Amino acid sequence: MRWLSFIVVFLLGGCGLFGGGDDDPIESPAELTEFDATLTVRELWSAKVGGGAEALRLGLAPATDGARIFAGGHSGQAAAFDSRSGQSHWDVRTDLALAAGPSYGDGVVVFGTSDGELLALNAETGEERWVQEIGSEILAPPSIGSGVVVVRTVDGRLQGFSVIDGRELWSVEQTVPSLTMRGNTAPHVTGSVVVTGFDNGRLGAYEISSGDPRWEVAVATPTGRTELERLVDISAGLQVVGNDVYAVSYHGRAVGVALETGLLLWQQELSSHSGLGADWNSVYVTDEFSEVVALDRNRGTPRWRQDALRLRDVTAPTPYGNSIVVGDLEGYLHWLNPSDGNLLARVRAASQRIAAAPLVVGDNLFIQSDDGTIAAFTVVADE
């Protein structure tokens, strides 16, 4: 049931809004239209890391230590590249079905797998440091801080493991509804706490050393008569900017929450399974129909909405320089103006769906697609 949940919700959501009966057609993804680009984008390099992730909706996305890009494919390949040149630092073949990550920290690169394992590799050489059996599929990149690897699993657990040897340090568990979206919120380590969201619509902050709760709040409450109507997953990435946490749920709302206390700062009715991005001025949300919405970061009030990418399975937005970038189901990257949402540029980065929000490292932007393509781009300054 978890396997089909995203597809069912996406299609039924479109039918319920636009179709009045069985004979009404399902709305198709928006056609891309021509526009006058005002940014010049150049591809720096591309590479391939495994593949085999088509239609699996995994949590594979590039990670960085500032100088290198780490990536992995569902086929088990893991690799490190120079962020500027794309030159390979190492390339290893694991025997595991990589499904989430990697994450970098404390000298290791960590992946989660479809079969419930946690894998740590030496960041310098790619050599295996340890493997820990967890027993539940991992669909969100782990997070690393203070010597702890924090993992969110599909069975509702948030767990901390030693970065040295992989032994379990603590575990937090939340209830899991009978039907959920496919995907989980990646935990976010900030200072001495880790913040994450759960399938029951709750958002929580926990001490990274012990797992003790600092606070928990309900972002959404299940309502409705059917399991589909009662979906309230926080199933995509959250953001921390300064002392504030921003998150969004499906069939729920976008919220701003004080990091230290869990106090609700603002809320805006909004539904998303893709997630959000944030900068110092705005919170950018890809809603359930792949329309990109900008909210004022301090008050949560809407600033603009861009519907040109409707139903194109758009990623969470990533702030990049003086733009916002999203990827889509056909491997396109779209640059948007953060002030008004207008399209600034578009490039075809890959032949298949871009799997996660783009990653920014310095002046460059990196993506990973379902077929294992890793590509780097930069905006060329006008002469």
Can you tag this structure with a few keywords?
disordered N terminus, mainly beta, 383 residues, Methylamine Dehydrogenase, Chain H, four-stranded antiparallel sheet, 1 helix, five-stranded mixed sheet
Q: What do you see in this structure?
A:
The chain has 383 residues and is mainly β. The protein has a single domain, classed as Methylamine Dehydrogenase, Chain H. Helices cover 4% and strands 45% of the residues. It has one helix spanning 2-18; strands spanning 40-48, 59-60, 63-64, 68-72, 77-82, 88-93, 98-105, 108-113, 117-122, 128-133, 143-145, 148-152, 157-162, 168-173, 188-190, 193-197, 202-207, 213-218, 239-241, 244-248, 252-258, 264-270, 275-278, 282-286, 292-296, 302-306, 318-320, 323-327, 332-336, 343-348, 359-361, 364-368, 373-380. The strands form eight sheets. The chain has a five-stranded mixed β-sheet with strand order 2-7-8-9-10, with no helix packed on it. Strand 17 and strand 18 (213-218) form a beta hairpin.
Give a brief rundown of this model.
With 383 residues, the protein is mainly beta. Helix content is 4%, strand content 45%.
Number of strands: 33
* CATH architecture heading: 7 Propeller
Instruction: List low-pLDDT spans.
Output: 1-21
In terms of structural class, how would the helical and strand content be classed? Answer: mainly beta
Q: Using the alpha-carbon principal axes, give the shape.
A: globular
User: Might you state the CATH topology name?
Assistant: Methylamine Dehydrogenase, Chain H
The CATH H-level homologous superfamily: YVTN repeat-like/Quinoprotein amine dehydrogenase
Number of separate helices? 1
In which order are the strands of the major sheet placed?
Answer: 2-7-8-9-10
| Whole-number total of structural domains | 1
Cα separation of the termini = 54 Å
Radius of gyration: 20 Å
Mean pLDDT: 88
Strand content: 35-45%
